[in-house]
Amino acid sequence: MNCTVVGTGYVGLVTGACFSEFGVNVVCVDNDEEKVAALRRGEMPIYEPGLEDLVSRNVKAGRLSFTADTAEAIRGALIVFIAVGTPAAADGSTDLRFVEAVARDIGRNMDGYKVVVTKSTVPVGTSRKVRDWIQEELDAQGVDLRFSMASNPEFLREGAAIGDFMRPDRVVVGTEDGDEQSLAILRDLYRPLFLNETPFVLTNVPTAELSKYAANAFLATKISFINEIGNLCEQIGGNVQHVARAMGLDRRIGPKFLHAGPGYGGSCFPKDTLSAAFFARELGLDFKIVEATIEVNARQRLRMLDKIVATLSGEVAGKQIGVLGLSFKPETDDVRDAPAADIIEGLLARGARVRAYDPAAMTEMGARFPDMTLCKDAYQVCEGADALVIVTEWNEFRMLDLERVRSLLAEPILIDLRNIYDPEATRAAGFHYASVGR
To answer: Domain 219-434 has what CATH class?
Structure first.
C-alpha cells in the first residue's frame, strides 16, 4: 500500500514515520525544498523524543522518503493525507488556504481512484469543501475520476506523539455515507492497531471532524476549571492539589488535566477552542462553556504575572528575574502560545531583566525576546537573580539543588507556577516560596 502525507510539520512527519513503521510505503511531501533536504539528511525540524530514530530506521528500510514534488507523490499513492497547517485567524476562524492548495493539487494530479484523508485539525464541513475543490480541478480538466473523502483526526500529545500513534486510546475514522471501499482501505491501513485491539470509532465525516474539537475543548475546560479552583483556594487558604486529588479519584472525573498553573498553550488547545467557538457562532449557537474556558485561560496568564510582581513586593523594574521553561509543556520545543511568552513579555514591559533556560526551546524564544539573556542551565539562570520562576515543568527542574539555588540567587525567592516543589520543605530551605492555589 502506497501512502502520501502532504505536510511535514508535527502531525505530518509523525504520521508518515509511524505508518512506515507499520510496513506501509510512505512519501512525505513538503514544498519547502530546504526542509526536505534536511529531512533526507536525517535532520528533524521539530523536537520529539524518538522521532529521529524512527525516521532514520524507516528511511534506511526504504519505506519512508521525502520529496518536494507534490504531483509525483500524489500520482503514486492510493491514500493521500492532508496534514498541513491550519492557523487561527484573528477572529478565531481557521485559515484553510493551505488545505485548499493541497486539495487543488490533488485534483490536478489525480490519475485514478484515491482516498483523500484530512488529518489536519479542521472545522466541521472542511472535508466537504476539500471534495468540492478537488472536483473543481477535475472538471476544469474534463476528467471523470472517482475519489473518496475521509476524516481521520490526530490525537497526538507533543512529547509523547510516537507512543500515542502506536498505542492510541482510540482511532477515529469518518467516511462518507455508504462508502464501503474507503472504509475497507483505511481499516487495512490501520490493521496493526486492529490486531492490537485498539478501540476504533467508525463514523461519518462530520462526526469525526467534530470529535477532535470536542476532545480538546473538554480537556482545555478541565485545565481552566482547576485554575479557577486554584484561585479560589488562594482566597480561602485551601490546597488545589488536594482538591484535584479528591476530584480525580472520582472515576467519572479522573485525575488527568487537573493541575493548576499558568494555563494551557501550544498549537492545539488555543486554536481549537477558538475555532470551536467560532464555528458554533456561525451556526447561531452560543458555546458558553468553551467561551468561558478561553476567557479564564487568558486571565490566568495575567494572574501569574501579577503573582510574580506581588511576590517581589509590587515592583519588578530594574530587577533580574530567572525563568525556567520556555516551551508550552515539557518534552517539546514548541513555544506557540506558551505561557512563558506572555509572562516574559509582561516582565520586560515592566522594566525587569530576564534570564532564562529551557532544554529545547531556546532558539525561537531567544529570537522573539532579544533583550532576554539565555543561559546554559538552570543554575546559571539563578546567578544574581532577584527571583526564580518555574514556568514549564521539565523533569530536570524537579530536583534542583535548592541549597545551591539559594546561594546563587541575590534574593531567595522561588515562584513555582507548576507546583512541583513542596511548600513546607522549600520554605524550610530558606526560600520565600510562592505557588499556584496553595
So the answer is: alpha beta
Task: Check 18, 233, 268, 375 and give the catalytic one.
Answer: 268
Q: Is the pTM of this model over 0.90?
A: yes
DSSP 275-324: HHHHHHHHTT---HHHHHHHHHHHHHHHHHHHHHHHHTTT--TT-EEEEE
Task: Report whether pLDDT(196) > 90.
Answer: no
Q: Which amino acid is at 429?
A: A
Q: Nearest-5° angle of CA 263, CA 268, CA 270?
A: 45
Q: Which of 341, 170, 348, 211 is nearest to 266 (CA)?
A: 341
Single-letter code of the amino acid located at 5: V
Q: What is the pLDDT of residue 240?
A: 98
The model's pLDDT over 75-134, given as tens digits with 9 standing for 90+, comes to: 999 999 999 999 988 888 999 999 999 999 999 999 999 999 999 999 999 999 999 999
In the chain, ranges of CATH 3.40.50.720 domains: 2-198, 219-434
- The set of long-range contacts for 175-179, using a CB threshold of 8 Å and a minimum separation of 24, is 175/148, 175/149, 175/150, 175/202, 175/204, 175/205, 176/148, 176/149, 176/150, 176/204, 176/205, 177/204, 179/148
CA dihedral 213, 51, 173, 283 (to 10 degrees): 20
- Could you give the CA distance from residue 70 to residue 31 in angstroms, rounded to a whole number? 8
Residues 6+ apart with CB under 8 A from 256: 219, 222, 248
- Is the domain 2-198 a CATH 3.40.50.720 member? yes
Active site annotation includes 3: no
Q: Which amino acid is at 87?
A: P
* Separation CA 347–CA 329 (nearest Å): 20
